[in-house]
Amino acid sequence: MDYGLQFTSSRKFLSISPIILYLLASFYTKYDAAHFLINTASLLSVLLPKLPQFHGVRLFGINKY
User: Fold this and answer.
1) In the prediction, which pLDDT does 65 show?
2) Which parts of the chain span the membrane according to its record (predicted)?
């Protein structure tokens, strides 16, 4: 996406939208512990791969070719 350039407007949007959804979900579940842990795990699973340090990194050989 965006020829590998970091921090373009589309990448910023795709990084901020899960954070907003996370905050809204946490607020509407009244910070219930079970929902909070599930939401945090899903947020991290979405945001960590978007970091520049993970560009081109393949876990467990998935999408190697």
Assistant:
1) 66
2) 12-28
